[in-house]
Structure formats: C-alpha cells, structure tokens
Specification:
By secondary structure, the chain is mostly helical. The protein has one domain: Alpha Horseshoe (Leucine-rich Repeat Variant), CATH 1.25.10.10. It is built from ten helices and no strands. The chain has helices at residues 3-10, 16-28, 33-41, 48-61, 70-76, 83-98, 106-122, 126-140, 144-154, 163-176. The termini are far apart.
Amino acid sequence: MNATYYKIIANSTAHRKSRDENKNFIFENPTYIKDLTALAFDTKDKNHHKACWVLELICEERMELFIPFIDDYCHSLKHFKSDSAIRSIAKIGLFLVKDISVHLTQKQEEQIIETFLDWLIQSDKAANAAYTMRALYILGKKHDWVNEELKALLSRDCSHQTPGYKFAVKDILKRLK
C-alpha cells in the first residue's frame, strides 16, 4: 500500500467533509481504490474502519469502481467485528443487492446472507441491523428460506431495542406479510 495514501486515511475523521475529501480523491485518482479496499478489508489494521467509511460513499455514488472487489468484499465479511466498520460494510452490501448492474454469484450471495444473519443476531446497533435486514429482505426474494429466517429473527422480543431498530423491524415485518 502507498504509505502516503495510508497516512491520509489514517489521519481522516468521521466528519462528512473528511470522508467526502477522501471519496473525491478516489474519484480523481481511481487507481488508489485498490489500496483503499485492501485497507478496508484488512480488519487487523486499526484504521480499516476509516477506509470502510470512504468505501461506503464511493459505492453509493460510483459502484462501478467497486465491482472488481466484490469477491474480496464477500470473502472478508466474516472477519469484521468493529461496529463502525460493520455499519459501512452492511450498507455496501445493501447497495450491492439493490444495484441492478451488479450480478452476484451464488457463492457471493451465500456469503452475504450468512454474515448478515450472524450480524443481525449479534448486533443491537440500529443502523447495522437496519442495513442487514433490508439487504436480507431483498435477497429473500430470490431465496425463500432467507425471508422465513428473517421473519423468525425479527419476531423475537425487541422491547429493549432503540426506536430506530424497532422501526426497521416493523417495516421489514410488514413487507414480509
């Protein structure tokens, strides 16, 4: 990885201005996306979550830059533990399953489904759960068993959850009926 670029990411912040500057740098220098994805998927690196934040914004606007890295994304999913990274990685997954220009393989879909179900079971973070359940719902249109599993998971007691989490659960359960 380019040491100068690594330093830029390491010194970035969660502020939108900082993330936008890093996103725009990639748009102007697309060859650096390989470095950005390598850092994002290296969950042992203390700055990987910062790369995930930038990658999320790139995928939201220009998914075509990310398409060559979908296999790496799917392979690394199970290694993410940081809630800060998972939020962005889950949102990227939602973008992937919604984007009609993206054609996921059966294996890639299975990797997303397996990891997102695990995250949904383990996480109580509203944003992470909302992105995972929405992505799973979309994948469930293709894989019936996913929506059955999703319905069972979301039907459990969530009285201790945040209002945002409860809203997302209510929305998905309504769609599942």
